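Folds abound. Consider this:
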Amino acid sequence: MKRVRRVQGARRPRIGSPFQILLLACSFALAGYAGVRLLAGDWLGVVLWFVGAALLHDLVLLPLYSVADRALTGGLGAARHSEWTSYVRFPAACSGLLLLVWFPLIGGRVDASYAGVTGLSADGFLARWLLITAVLFGGSALLLAGRLLRSATKRRPPDVH
């Protein structure tokens, strides 16, 4: 019987365990159900919103945060401080995401019906967003300082008396 040798790098595609396949099928079923329910009302408005959001992201937001990231890595000196960029990227991304999601409330662009529907005041969102942003950047700075301190103590030779 002739044996067929497998070519290096040619692998059989991995499908996954039966549990993973079942979980994936359930997530597709849930997404399909949500899509049918979402499009049942004002389907044209939903489609326009999705297309508009995709265009806004791809044509406006992506170039903006790409330029900001290039400025950050160029400003820190990419060759020397490339590991520092994560300590700025993460809090900036979280803060930006919070701003994007809660922009009407943070910007104070809420009509009077908001308080009537939710029973909550729209005041204080800007202050809370600024506080969360400060905590994110402060925590990231503390983590970076701890990392730099730990690496500095590892490099220093022990004191010999």
About this structure: The radius of gyration is 25 Å. Helices lie at 18-40, 43-76, 78-81, 86-106, 113-118, 125-155. The CA atoms of residues 3 and 10 lie 16 Å apart.
